Amino acid sequence: MRNVAPLLAMAVLISTGSNGWAQDSANIDIAYAEDGRYFTDDDIPTYNVTEDGRVDWLTYSGFRRYHSECHVCHGPEGEGSTYAPALKNSALDMDYYDFIDVVVNGRQRVNAAETSVMPAFGNNPNVMCYLDDIYVYLKARGTDAVPRGRPGSREDKSEVIREDENACLG
To answer: For the whole prediction, is pTM greater than 0.85?
Structure first.
């Protein structure tokens, strides 16, 4: 059932415009795990990296999806570029639901001080079906729990994650 979290969050954002839930940048600790996914006390997806550097499936998948869709503007490993900000910081500094809102709906800030345009990815299944994966990966990068480069080892994909992925992609 966890795969519906981004869709429910999106519905709340669309219907209310905002939610007021704040995510403290230190809100990374695992409170519980379910079917290969890890969550904080606030039911926010988070990462699991073992002492030997092994990452959970979502973090590994997030690395792959980030580098297929996001790195062109935001730079490799979420480090940012001259064109767009470092998303590894955004995953820590932004509320989880605000992060989803920006990815789904895009954002445009044009004024005397800045010109910033983030396109909407709400219709892109390579982003939407893996939104939590991307978020978790960026969160792990933002805390330096995952170094730059492809993660060396990973957990296996759980059957539930596989089923959710198939259902999302059709």
So the answer is: no
